[in-house]
Amino acid sequence: MTLRNRREDFFWSVFGAAVVAYALIPVAWIVSLSLKRPADLNDRRFFPSPVTFDNYRAIFADAQFPAALWNSFGIALIATALSIVLALFAAYAVVRLDFPGKKLVLGGVLAVSMFPPVSLIGPLFNLWRTVGLYDTWAGLIIPYMTFTLPLAIWTLSAFFRELPWDLDKAARIDGATPFQAFVHIIVPLAAPGVFTAAILVFIFAWNDFLFATSLTSTNAARTVPAAIAFFTGSSQFEQPTGSIAAASVVVTLPVVVIVLLFQKRIVAGLTAGAVKG
Question: What predicted TM-score, i.e. pTM, was given to this entire model?
Answer without folding.
Answer: 0.81
